[in-house]
Amino acid sequence: MFTDKYMESNILVIYTGGTIGMIQDPATGALTPFNFDALYKHIPILQNFNCRIDSYCFDPLIDSSNMNPSFWIKLAKVIEENYEKYDGFVVLHGTDTMAYTASVLSFMLENLNKPVVFTGSQLPMGVLRTDGRENFINAIEIAAARAEDTPIVPEVSICFENRLMRGNRTNKFNAENFNAFLSGNYPLLAQVGVHIRYNHQHILKPNFRKLKVHLNLDPNVAILKLFPGITENVVRSILNIPGLKALILETYGAGNAPTDAWFLKALSDGIAGGITIFNVTQCKGGSVEMGKYETSVQLGSIGVVGGYDITTESAVAKTMYLLGEGFSGGQLSQMLQTPLRGELTID
Which residues are catalytic? Predict the structure, then answer.
């Protein structure tokens, strides 16, 4: 029988930086990093949980706008080194690039059988109307939740504004509202109200295999967002970046793009030169359907890879991961279209 009880769990809170970890200094009024050694003093309600909460703070902390693959590797190593000591992990992270980090961690942590819950806030923890306190408490409860001694959400997720989403299905869509994240193509994993209602049918099941952490990421990836009036110089300048191995092509609607001869020739030349082009939609919901309209038929004919309903954030993360694992050419294209961590749906 499923239960959302958090009995005798050990949780590691990992603070990377970001708004949620800031608190107002009573003397100066300035915002300073939260002292996680005094966690129970700042949030005494946490003592009501029947679990031990430890913390790990990166030094130096990093603003999420400065997030990069080398930091993702450090974060994955922290989880790897502490994996057997804890039942779940809560990662406090700035909101701007949280969807990228949650996506890439989902690929780096193969055979993940424990919760890794990302959360953050729009207002600092030390501000009166902060959303950070509730986000943090909810994330702790979800990371600690077990059913018959098995974690209820054994995957990388984002907990924000009373909603739990698969990490590699999200994007930040609002810079001001507390409801800042969207999972446009995948149902919520849970909703938090009086009770936490888990959507068990949508949560990845544990496979009980040994965790395998992948630490090789190849950042030779670029994003090209199409817009009306885009010029040949712009397209070719991106495709001619030295060392570029893959291009995330953000197309219109269901994967549509201009049919101008110069545009198709530029993409075709890039593919012939060894660049994999991954077609994702600019829309926050919906899927790339190569060949549905005439404007996408020719993309498929020259070898552009359709991304189905994957997000741009997840497409970037997955491509860096697969390139780091040594995939290229046809193998890379095949793996990009294969669901690995629940990141895309193939009809």
Answer: 19, 95
